[in-house]
Input
Amino acid sequence: MRAWPAPDLPTLPVSAPPVRVHDSSTGGLVETRPQGPARLYVCGITPYDATHMGHAATFVAFDLLNRAWRNAGHEVVYVQNITDVDDPLFERAEKVGIDWRELAARETELLRQDLAALRIVPPEHFPGAEESLDLIVALIGRLQDAGAIYAVDDDLYFSVSADPAFGQESGWSREQMLAVFADRGGDPDRAGKKDPLDCLVWRAERRGEPALDSLLGRGRPGWHVECTAMALDLLGEGFDVQGGGTDLVFPHHEMCASEAQVLTGTPYARAYVHAGMVAYDGAKMSKSKGNLVFVSALRHSDVDPMAIRLTLLRHHYRSDWEWTDDQLWSAADQLATWRQAVAVGAGSPSGPVVEAVLEALATDLDAPSAVAAVDAWAAATLGTGGLADTGDPDAGSVMRALVDAALGIAL
Ligand code: 5CA
Ligand code: ZN
Output
């Protein structure tokens, strides 16, 4: 699919340090060491409702990674998918009485506008599951050849026991896995399965349900195998970072990794990076619960998208936090202060701030520390609480470029 227009990426006077990120599979910080272009896959939306702050926070987190890599001199190949073939989309389309393809197209278009407004660098590839059907079916065929697939009635399942490394991505125990599997799209209790944790890779057509034509007959692929096929096709094996929210640690990323590892015999991704959950009204913001704050709704009430982005950046990407409107208004004030400071032209020395901001982002995408460094520079430049320091004649333009290139905020 077509992505969205790219924002300008100013070049910085210095190169950023190598990027370290927290890897869920090892539980610690790892240095990314891209060989050739840095390869990033981020799990995108199931397009049955508009982009909410939880999605936006996750996409902004991986946009910081994309920018940190580019600022360190790497080329980046970024893939963000659209899950346009899956149960939640079909269920919503049925409920509201609209064609599922039309619903998906409408919500995907809204996502493009939202993510462009938030100055997220667009992916090089923005694949949907339906347009990727042939390669998903081909991947299921290769898994069959590898002996990792069995049938239950007319449906096909991936056998988790085929992967000796199953469980390594999440590090979870079987008990932990079984506790959430049913709530996260799994069907542990289906009769005929060899292991309750085995996941569906192909669902044969049921009367009244959407189905696609394929070499496997009419039906539709399971969720995990869709991402595995798109990632392997567009990035190849052993790509640098698999990203998404922590709600995807298990089963989604575990299953994707296992399916790929059975075929390639090598790790699926080098690091698994997960963004914390954004809550609202006391619960995880989710389309199924309906406790949502939409990016588009705020945009349409004239909120500056840069204030939305700054609100998200004030939280570390790995923390779980709750959205409140007062954070947005406070970020809007902070943004105004930054704009006032760069408008002075001259300012407090920018060199140390450039280093501090790039170092913070290279150290597990620590946006709150980067934001604090910009705050301190703005306060010194404006003389908040004392004399203004305007000793650096180029500070305004350097800071404008830095805040844009590293944090994605246009001042
Ligand atoms: N289509 C699948 C991934 S293949 C999916 O999870 N779609 S989604 O629409 O539910 O979520 C899209 C992205 O936003 C995923 O990376 C997900 O982990 C993340 N996400 C969803 N809800 C939240 C939330 N409340 N806070 C932070 N991130 C979230
Ligand atoms: Zn995915």
About this structure: The longest strand covers residues 239-245.
